[in-house]
Inverse folding.
């Protein structure tokens, strides 16, 4: 079974690296790190155990890659517009697409282009970052919530999901099935919307945000707004979930959310999938995410400044 | 007629300096700049004409000052808790207190302590800053909206207001009377809440905020929220006032709002009077200033960080 990893940042690097490490046939499509990885392979410093892959299948162009049975898309959603020419080359009729991306909208976008392709998504609960070319640091956690996309929302637990879980069986990564992927995406937004945004705006890692009284109030109030939005969109998230996530984050190692790292490295921020698409989706159901909108507008300003 | 100026920052410096410059008997109570001003006087670089006052009545302690007919309070509202021992010394029965301060709550606070003292407030529409000890830069504008405080809100145009306007007659400063001081305070908040807050959070002067599309939307939406809050509190501000202020600010010279200067100089931010008091006042009338609250919470975090 051939596995492609499209995008080898922190997420593609850790999960693709683990799959290669346990012996799977993994093919990495790289961009800026191509030459380094082709020459030196991948290095992973992980809480699951450090390892090096001195020789990996590294590619600069999709056209050079084999067609694959599983394609892991680990690009930032800001790069999804560039996916079509890559997937056109890599896809076979029976290929499974596995998106490891945050926010809303990626499945709908891909389902329009590839209506007959199985589309699965993994929501990654992991603290990791790329700290150098081909060099991934995995600090904490690692579990994936896995679901299959269905326009009817509730896909249940499918054979394709079991097959993906099988792939990860010996990696040390826990796979948790979710029968309702979009519900899981909204649940993840309950964390991502407050923590990613405020970490960029206030230039703080998680513990700095959590320990300030006013900022902690703001985190909770944003979480509550996302929960309310999700419930307006037909999902069911209990109000106390905000506090569950808050206390879980209290116990996590201090962490720089991925959007803060993107900002610091002058990469574009995933505002469309993490902010604007949820705001629009809720507005269509008559709910105004007014606090989230303030955060999104501030981030849009900072993102624009960052590009200059 | 003796005039005291309590607090000689940008506002106390420019208005007190102008009054002294045209020959009034002005007594300045200084804090950090005392020694410099006692030795060198005040220097004012102003669009109305530069001038120096080589010798001013400078004091380090209120106890050394004469009782005054007019006391101009030009401290930041964050220092109002320190006013009582100063005013106890300076006040005569017929003294007029003139507050040159932003936000809500200062009159109510002082009226509790000095119920028999005439309390006037001037809202300053001015671009000025203190650029060195005893050295004021006045870049643009300068008008004062003057009103008398009345617990019944509508004080009308009073003899005390005319007397203060008389004092400023030859300074080049326009005095505009407002019969309803609290309405005028809310109108000023329509500008202060968005521009002061976002300038600190996004580290931008006015033109930088205005020219970004998302940030401009946010400015307008915050202004509209303040207008809605004011209208809930029994005042009358038209919806289009947001656009009036926006276009006026477009035409103003690029400007660092006073809160941004306070932040950069590690001075405490006027969050109580400009944010929390309006938020509480609106909440008592059943209106939730949800966007303003996000800004206030972010500012509270930054203010706290700034103190460390």
């Amino acid at each position: 079974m051939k596995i492609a990893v499209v995008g080898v940042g922190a997420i593609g690097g850790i999960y693709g690296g683990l799959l290669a490490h346990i012996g799977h046939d993994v093919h990495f499509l790289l961009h800026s790190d191509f030459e380094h990885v082709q020459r030196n392979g991948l290095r992973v410093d992980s809480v699951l155990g450090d390892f090096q892959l001195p020789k990996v299948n590294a590619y600069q162009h999709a056209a050079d890659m084999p067609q694959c049975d599983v394609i892991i898309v680990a690009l930032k959603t800001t790069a999804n517009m560039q996916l079509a020419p890559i997937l056109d080359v890599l896809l076979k009729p029976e290929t499974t697409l596995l998106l490891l991306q945050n926010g809303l909208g990626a499945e709908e976008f891909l389902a329009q282009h590839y209506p007959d392709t199985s589309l699965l998504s993994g929501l990654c609960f992991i603290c990791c970052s790329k700290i150098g070319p081909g060099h991934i640091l995995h600090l904490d956690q690692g579990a994936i919530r896995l679901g299959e996309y269905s326009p009817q929302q509730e896909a249940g637990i499918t054979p394709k999901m079991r097959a993906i879980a099988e792939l990860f069986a010996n990696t040390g990564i826990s796979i948790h099935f979710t029968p309702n992927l979009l519900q899981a995406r909204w649940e993840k937004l309950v964390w991502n919307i407050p923590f990613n945004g405020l970490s960029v705006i206030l230039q703080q890692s998680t513990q700095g945000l959590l320990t300030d009284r006013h900022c902690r109030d703001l985190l909770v109030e944003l979480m509550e707004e996302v929960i309310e939005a999700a419930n307006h969109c037909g999902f069911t998230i209990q109000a106390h979930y905000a506090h569950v996530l808050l206390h879980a984050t209290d116990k996590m190692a201090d962490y720089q959310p991925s959007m803060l790292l993107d900002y610091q490295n002058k990469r574009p921020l995933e505002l469309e999938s993490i902010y604007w698409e949820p705001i629009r989706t809720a507005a269509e159901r008559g709910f105004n995410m007014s606090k989230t909108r303030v955060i999104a507008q501030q981030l849009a300003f900072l993102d624009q400044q960052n590009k200059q």
The domain at 183-307 of chain B is CATH 1.10.1040.10 (N-(1-d-carboxylethyl)-l-norvaline Dehydrogenase; domain 2).
